[in-house]
Amino acid sequence: MPSNQSPAEKRYPKPIIGLVGGIGAGKSTVAGELEKLGCAVIDSDKLAAAALQEPVIQAQLRQWWGEEICPANGSINRQALAAKVFANPGGYRELERLNGLIHPRVAQMRREKMLQVEHNPLVVGVVWDSPLLVESGLQNECDAIIFVKASEEMRRKRVFQTRGWDDREIRRREKFQAPLDKKMEIADYIVDNDGDWASSGTQTCRVLSQILAEFGRIPPSEE
After folding, report:
1. Mean pLDDT value across the chain
2. Closest CA to 57 of 108, 112, 93
3. Which residues, 6 or more positions from 119, have their beta carbon under 8 angstroms from its beta carbon?
């Protein structure tokens, strides 16, 4: 049971599984495997991207940071926005302000999506794929935490290939996240994603089976 929930409170009828790990560890890959196994995945990055398209939020961004960040045509300049919150010397304050605007809307959309699958018999669990799961305190609402493990060399290689970030950009973004040792410390399970996808997929299936068994549900087949 989530640590911040008393026995008298209503428990969500499916296990809530949080994913943590470093940038480039492959959390989305593990989330995809869990989705194949019957979990509903709620991707906070996708929810945040949707929130950034809402007129009220765009209007606030224009008021704060001008047309460079959010032109009148409504197309967010994500590169300029990232530079504002990650590269700016006052980045912590700017990121906090952005999160204060976006996160309440993301939380609302997350609740709506959970309501949609709450009683769906085909959904065995709900996965929260959020880059700031620990930083935002969401780990306290999870029934299980999976740490996706990968070496620093592998993570940096993947991030360069998929996002084009160099080591400097990765370090700049990592300073806004909780340390890896803290994320590993709170984890209930570990999936080693340093090798091939087949290996991590097998591990993911086994971990989900354990979570469902502890939750009193029938585990998926590994075949």
Report:
1. 85
2. 108
3. 13
Domains and CATH numbers, the chain: 15-38+124-213 (3.40.50.300), 48-123 (no CATH)
**pLDDT score for 7:** 39
Is 148 in contact with 30 (CB distance < 8 Å)? yes
Pair 130, 41: CB distance under 8 Å:
no
The pair of three-digit structure tokens given for residue 62, joined into one six-digit string? 């224009």
Structure tokens at 212: 């469902």
SS3 sequence, 54-76? CHHHHHHHHHHHCCCCCCCCCCC
Q: In sequence order, what DSSP letters do the residues of 5-70 get, joined into one string? A: --TTSPPPSS-EEEEEE-TTS-HHHHHHHHHHTTEEEEEHHHHHHHHTTSHHHHHHHHHHH-TTTS
SS3 content of the chain, % helix, strand, coil (to 5): 50, 10, 35
Residue linked to tokens 């045509």: 73
Span 12-41, average pLDDT:
93
pTM of the model: 0.85
